[in-house]
Amino acid sequence: MFGCLVAGRLVQAAPQQVAEDKFVFDLPDYENINHVVVFMLGTLPFPEGMGGSVYFCYPDQSGMAVWQLLGFVTNEKPSAIFKISGLKSGKGSQHPFGAMNLPQTPTVAQIGISVELLESLAQQTPVASAAVSSVDSFTEFTQKMLDNFYNFASSFAVTQAQMTPNPSEAFIPANVVLKWYENFQRRLTQNPLFWKT
Fold first, then answer.
1. What pLDDT does residue 45 have?
2. Fewer Cβ atoms within 10 Å of its own Cβ: the N or the C terminal residue of the chain?
């Protein structure tokens, strides 16, 4: 019913069924994984009104399982990409795998899928950092660079009363930098490749 994919590895299409409504995939060498894709194989849909919550489980320093909710898959949303690289130091959350004593190996993490009512899925809150950004890395870099430049330039702002005349220095009004910053962000939002034209 489910598949799991990690870049550079073979597709896993046979999860271990640990309960009637719970499945797990092992992720060996999980510390070198950035993203994981969980998807339905298309061979068997969820029963009407049901979906699957997707969890990431890794062993903490003492070897105890830490489970974190990543998101969900449903018949209407049969696949999802999750970023797990930043989760390895986070805190666990409430999960349906608690009563199960799944074996934990220090270098193996797990993806767990729990079949649940769609109403239950709608009330769950996934870990925020698991969502894959829809902004490409160039746009994200550009926005961070803009923020950094604006913050840096603003840190030198002085009022006219504080200015000391110095004929060898040119001063740029802070409102001009702010206007440029806002215009650049607007244009970047409208077309991330505007600078190529």
1. 93
2. C
SS3 content of the chain, % helix, strand, coil (to 5): 25, 30, 45
Closest CA to 30 of 1, 66, 72: 66
Cα 114 to Cα 106: distance, rounded to the nearest angstrom: 23
Environment class of 78 (CB within 10 Å of its CB; exposed 0-12, middle 13-18, buried 19+): middle
Residue keyed to tokens 């590895």: 9
Is the pLDDT assigned to residue 100 strictly greater than 60?
no
Give the tokens for residue 169: 């220095």
Look at residue 135 and tell me whether its pLDDT is greater than 90: no
E strands along the chain, which residues?
Answer: 2-5, 16-19, 22-28, 35-40, 50-59, 65-73, 79-83, 108-117
Neighbours of 127 (CB within 10 A): 21
Q: Where are the alpha helices (DSSP H) in the chain?
A: 118-123, 137-154, 174-190
Among candidate residues 116, 122, 127, 125, the one with its CA nearest the CA of residue 58: 127
C-alpha to C-alpha distance for 79 and 41, rounded to whole angstroms: 9
Residue 39 pairs with which residues in a beta bridge?
A: 3, 79
